[in-house]
């Protein structure tokens, strides 16, 4: 019956269009009857006009129906395409996208201005479903948000500003019933993405709900192996019946056990997501207090670190290695906090032999099993041990542990980290290896600020300055590694200047002259300025505005993000080179005139050209207004002052530089005041001093 109605509704109006068109073209409604008298002819004429009007109405109705059918087909195609691009499941995905279009359409009919608001975007619609009392709507909204977040969509601003929605998501983490496993996992994935912006004090009971994710609900059923003795005397037919009944009973029991048996994969995912949430929460010092206070939570977090079988377990079980990696990430965040709890946890770890043994074993672990996870664990061990070594006042780390850590950092960072690694290694493993190298270099640059560790580095590798210089000057090397090399060289110049040659200065000056302030990739890409926006981040993706080429849009978005990351890395390298130049001037070159003459001799174009390069650098960075750019401006000013004092540039070049500095001083005044206020807490003391006003006054005094 349904198929007949569908065919009638689909083809009926099309048939009416054909019949109406045929009748209007035929126009002979009364046939060829010539016996119609004059009185009847007027009636026939009226009838013909009436029929023409009728068939015209039917034809217009059919055409309007075709337009409606076309719109419905376009909407269906939009729903299918959107669902496929967002990787939604067909059933609920189609329903949710269709419901979103219907909801937006109805709201626009009531108020067309609603399209101008962000609340009409698809993520906003999905977030709105979190307020629904319907379990199905809530589940669908959580599914949509989970997939959008995994696809790179930022929904934090929409969810975090609504405390009831955030509270409900947190409460759902504590739903331990097996029937709520899916929605619990979805909520955990969403909260993990938002954890960095959550203040636990604002959400009562939140930490208890998060802690419940680290618990495995349900126990493995115990199999009953007791054998039942058969009656001693039974006939063969009775034996067959008994065997059949026993087999059916065993099958029914097995099914019941399978239904009761916990989903180990689901439990593992819940634990990993719970650790991700705790890692994000631990970025805030106040949250660290709330994490450490509840009894038993800290013990759950540190359980893998204190486990006597950790090394064997991570070698035989990749899921357990993932959990251990997540646990160590949380531990690292907690011990970084400058507070009594952070100090207490550092002392507890350093005084526990099993924990230290596990960390050192992971540090030197070279197992090929689960290579990517193994390198992640190695990074965590390096980070935790670095924090313990830095806290020399309250933590007693043995000299052997400290030396082993520095040796491993040097081994990893000085190794070849190019694109091509060992044979049969995938690109993802190569990326992990480069990340491991960056972690080793960054932690080594922090430790090398200590005079004793800098001395140990030059003792371990007496050619360390030459090797770091080669890495710094290698244009094929990653910018991040070159920046780290410059920072380590600066620390070595500060503490072990006798091991650094003065010939380093001309090489650094040449690199400053050659460095690109803005990357070449900043040029507009095809389609970059065509107004393509993310899927639904602002509300311009309503109903019929879904982009036709999401792959191209994603490529442009990724390219722009990559260009911004490259520009940030170049700025950090520029800052490191300028800072290294100042340290060489202060530590290796006794007389200021000697520094200026090195600049004059080794720089192409002399001191004047170098001052012009510094002026261009100031102009480029005063528009960015970031702490890194602020420090670059100050470093350029200090270096330019040394050249101006020796009169190795013209008076016009001096005036032009001072004008650029004055402009930068006005532009960056607010940023500088913020760094002055936050300098103690955020390690921005190098950026805060000296003040731009002081530098400007000093340089104005050098202008004739």
Automatic annotation (TrEMBL):
PANTHER family: ARM REPEAT SUPERFAMILY PROTEIN, CONDENSIN COMPLEX SUBUNIT 1 C-TERMINAL DOMAIN-CONTAINING PROTEIN. Residues 520-565 are annotated as: Disordered. Residues 550-561 have a biased composition (Basic residues). InterPro entries: ARM-type_fold. Signal peptide: none annotated. It comes from Oryza meyeriana var. granulata. This is UNC-45/Cro1/She4 central domain-containing protein. The chain crosses the membrane at residues 6-24, 53-72. Keywords: Membrane, Transmembrane, Transmembrane helix.
């Amino acid at each position: 019956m349904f198929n007949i109605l569908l065919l009638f509704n689909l083809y009926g109006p099309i048939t009416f269009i054909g019949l109406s068109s045929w009748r209007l073209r035929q126009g002979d409604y009364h046939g060829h009857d010539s016996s119609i008298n004059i009185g009847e002819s007027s009636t026939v004429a009226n009838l013909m006009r009436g029929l023409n009007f009728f068939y015209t109405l039917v034809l217009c109705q059919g055409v309007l129906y075709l337009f409606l059918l076309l719109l419905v087909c376009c909407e269906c195609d939009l729903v299918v395409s959107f669902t496929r691009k967002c990787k939604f499941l067909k059933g609920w995905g189609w329903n949710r996208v269709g419901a979103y279009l219907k909801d937006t359409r109805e709201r626009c009919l009531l108020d067309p201005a609603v399209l101008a608001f962000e609340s009409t975007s698809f993520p906003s619609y999905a977030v709105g479903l979190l307020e629904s009392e319907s379990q199905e709507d809530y589940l669908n909204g959580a599914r949509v948000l989970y997939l959008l977040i995994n696809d790179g969509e930022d929904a934090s601003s929409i969810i975090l500003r609504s405390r009831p929605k955030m509270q409900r998501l947190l409460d759902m983490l504590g739903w331990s019933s097996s029937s709520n496993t899916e929605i619990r996992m979805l909520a955990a994935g969403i909260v993990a993405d938002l954890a960095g912006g959550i203040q636990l004090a604002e959400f009562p009971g939140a930490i208890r709900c998060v802690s419940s994710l680290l618990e495995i609900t349900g126990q493995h059923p115990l199999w009953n192996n007791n054998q039942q003795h058969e009656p001693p005397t039974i006939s063969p037919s009775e034996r067959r019946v008994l065997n059949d009944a026993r087999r059916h009973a065993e099958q029914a029991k097995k099914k019941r056990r399978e239904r009761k048996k916990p989903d180990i994969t689901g439990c593992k995912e819940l634990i990993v997501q719970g650790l991700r949430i705790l890692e994000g929460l631990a970025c805030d010092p106040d949250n660290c207090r709330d994490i450490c206070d509840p009894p038993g939570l800290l013990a759950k977090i540190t359980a893998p670190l204190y486990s006597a079988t950790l090394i064997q377990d991570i070698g035989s079980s990749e899921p357990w290695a993932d959990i251990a990696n997540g646990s160590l990430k949380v531990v690292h965040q907690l011990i970084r906090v400058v507070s009594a709890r952070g100090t207490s946890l550092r002392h507890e770890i350093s005084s526990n032999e099993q924990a230290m043994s596990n960390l050192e074993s992971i540090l030197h672990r070279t197992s090929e099993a689960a290579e990517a996870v193994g390198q992640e664990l190695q990074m965590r061990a390096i980070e935790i041990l670095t924090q313990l070594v830095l806290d020399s006042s309250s933590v007693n780390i043995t000299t052997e542990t400290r030396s082993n850590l520095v040796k491993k950092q040097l081994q990893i960072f000085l190794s070849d980290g190019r694109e091509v690694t060992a044979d049969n290694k995938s690109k993802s493993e190569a990326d992990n290896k480069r990340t491991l190298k960056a972690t080793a270099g960054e932690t080594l640059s922090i430790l090398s600020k200590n005079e004793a560790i800098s001395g140990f580095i030059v003792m371990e590798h007496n050619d360390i300055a030459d090797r770091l210089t080669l890495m710094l000057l290698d244009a094929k090397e990653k910018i991040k590694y070159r920046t780290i090399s410059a920072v380590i060289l600066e620390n070595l110049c500060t503490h072990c200047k006798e091991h650094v040659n003065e010939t380093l200065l001309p090489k650094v000056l040449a690199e400053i002259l050659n460095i690109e302030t803005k990357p070449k990739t900043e040029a507009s890409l095809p389609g970059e300025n065509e107004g393509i926006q993310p899927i639904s981040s602002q509300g311009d993706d309503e109903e019929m505005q879904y982009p036709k080429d999401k792959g191209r849009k994603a490529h442009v978005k990724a390219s722009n993000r990559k260009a911004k990351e490259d520009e940030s890395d170049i700025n950090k390298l520029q800052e490191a080179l300028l800072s290294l130049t100042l340290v060489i001037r202060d530590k290796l070159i006794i007389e200021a005139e000697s520094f200026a003459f090195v600049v004059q001799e080794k720089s192409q174009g002399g001191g004047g050209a170098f001052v012009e390069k510094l002026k261009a650098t100031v102009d480029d960075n005063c528009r960015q207004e970031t702490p890194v750019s602020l420090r670059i401006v100050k470093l350029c000013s200090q270096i330019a002052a040394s050249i101006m004092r020796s009169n190795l540039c013209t008076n016009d070049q001096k005036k032009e530089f001072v004008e650029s500095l004055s402009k930068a001083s006005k532009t960056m005044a607010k940023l500088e005041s913020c760094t002055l206020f936050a300098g103690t807490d955020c390690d921005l003391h190098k950026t805060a001093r000296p003040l731009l006003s002081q530098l400007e006054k000093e340089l104005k005094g050098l202008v004739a």
